[in-house]
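Box 3.1. Reading complex inputs
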Amino acid sequence: MKQKTTAFVLSQKELAPDIYEMWLETSLATEAGPGQFLCLYPKDKSTLLPRPISICEIDQEKKALRIVYRIAGAGTREFSGYQSGDCVSVLGPLGNGYAPGEGMGKKVFLMGGGIGIPPLLELAKQLQAEKQIILGYRDSRLFLKEDFEQYGTLYIATEDGSVGTRGNVMDVITANALEADVIFACGPMPMLRAIRTFAAKKQIPAYISLEERMACGVGVCLGCVARTREIDRHSHVHNARICTDGPVFEAQDVEI
Amino acid sequence: MNTQVTLAGVTFKNPVMTASGTFGSGMEYSEFIDLSRLGAVVTKGVANVPWPGNPVPRVAEVYGGMLNAIGLQNPGVDVFLKRDIPFLKQYDTKIIVNVCGKTVADYVEVVERLGEEPAIAMLEINVSCPNVKEGAIAFGQNADALSDITREIKSHAKQPVIMKLSPNVTDITEMAKAAEAAGADALSLINTITGMKIDIHRRKFVLANKTGGMSGPAIKPVAVRMVYQAAHAVKIPVIGMGGISNADDAIEFLLAGASAVSVGAMNFVNPYTTVEVAEGIRDYMEKYHIENVTDLIGAVE
């Protein structure tokens, strides 16, 4: 069940320039799943709205959640200053995440681009499949590489070509002639569009995680909608709520 | 201690309501709070047919508040009556349905349909929608248009009618008086204040719609002033809203002349705000030995 509660910061670490990881101790960990997200509330009251941040890793035993986030503005900058022992208001776990069952025993791509990489980690952990993990970065300042290596065959793309394949995650597929039965992905919109087209051509399912500016995070404000093929269950107008119907959608179900 | 208030013959267990568009039809926030603890749930705007709303981005944060340009996405009155009313009926709270439209005929169609449903206590009319027949200026920004739509709706409505006033006008008292003279049973204000935000790095508007309605704590002083002015210009009751985040804020609106209050954008920040406001009003009454919450209405000296 969704809950707004206080989480305690266990650790904070800069993984790459402006990319931080924070482990939070919270009861929400027991209910969280891969691809779901949390809303974190800045303490500065001039920044009112919660910040939606994907869950990177779940430690149910320690009741802890790991988030990996990029400083994008005042709110995330405030979060990056938190230290072990600090507390933060969180709402969660939110959204419909990835269903690991959809990839069970299959040959899969886990494709992440930039700050879309983190939510794939918990999925990589839970998914029992032949995992080809394809991560796209801007340059050689990689993050979470060692974490992903344990869970599958790892391929890297960098825009500047400093590590792995020069280009993006799609270029990795071409360069290595990779194939899959199902795709799980998160990343910038151009990458998700390319994956959607690729999946349609190959006639394989692709579960993509979308992002949009949100206010409430729980499906009330209707701020974060995505155009859908079928009528949505809330307003019956082909506008699904990313925060509640998503953030993970089958790629062909959304018009992006 | 008596926290009841009566507006246009409808009695509410307490003066705390939800501002339209910030609470859906209560389903999502019922996971957090007991809706029966609210004076009323004011629903998101309902149109005659489903409205798809605006392109994204639809929301943006601003200092101490937010902008929204949702564009009144809603499933239309059919789905609303079939799905949302039965849900709300499970709770011991009053149901106020917000109505939106593009033409007077649209509004009337919804108002007539809602008239068939006795569980609906009151109607709230959103007159900040663009009037498509009049160059898209909002009904609530012109006293004659406001007067016409109020009169037309009153002649079709089965329930008492609250006209929700736009703050984007030169003189709020002119609008308040026009609505009262045309037969409105109550007023609610303020709706959001039109704003804009520009991303200086991309040199683009943050909202796809360019402009959006501002809400949140930053607008509260403007709202308190307008509620005070409107409440002193008319005899019908006024529901006050705009930036309420706690009981202190709500009491300020009551003292300014509001007979009830609504919590809006702060629901997004803290889903428990409405219940906390209701409890805080009781605490205040206890502290100052106030027997009836109605004693606070307009009690600023």
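In summary: The longest helix of chain B spans residues 273-287.
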